[in-house]
Amino acid sequence: MKDKAVCESDVMSMSPCCSDPPPPFRVEPDGVRWLTPGLRKYSCQLTIDTNTVNKQLKLSDNNRKVTCVEEDQSYPDHPDRFDFWPQLLCRTGLTGRCYWEVEWRRDVDVSVSYRGIKRKGDRDCLFGGNDQSWSLSCSDKDYYVRHNKTVTRITS
């Protein structure tokens, strides 16, 4: 899985009060990179937290590619590791507006989670199966969104 996220660091700017009522505050990014047109200016590299990677996930391409495999990988035991579901977390949390670009084959789940999600056990740890996470499941046939044990099929 190759992914990029979009993060917005916000700086507040004010417009002169020449109208009635005054214009609202606008929150816009600041700096040279923001002059680039399109969404890529918001991208940042995500880094996998290798202490969270489930043993059925194989990392490759300098930890930028993740493949679900049948045989357990020889990762050291760690209290942050997901022990049941094949999932992982990134090292740094995201704030603000974010998006991902993911290259995938067959099936993929792209999820967001609070860092405090449970790591040990079954149902309560599944991304989208609790109130700590949301998940988008994609396949060649269907798309679903999961949150807090509710599954919603996305139709066109």
TrEMBL record:
In this protein, which residues make up the domain named B30.2/SPRY? 26-156
What Pfam families does the record point to? PRY
Record InterPro entries: B30.2/SPRY, B30.2/SPRY_sf, ConA-like_dom_sf, E3_ubiq-ligase_TRIM/RNF, PRY
Keywords for this entry?
A: Metal-binding, Zinc, Zinc-finger
Residues annotated as transmembrane: none
GO CC terms in record: cytoplasm
Which molecular function GO terms apply here?
A: zinc ion binding
Q: What is this protein called?
A: B30.2/SPRY domain-containing protein
This chain's source organism reads Gasterosteus aculeatus (Three-spined stickleback)
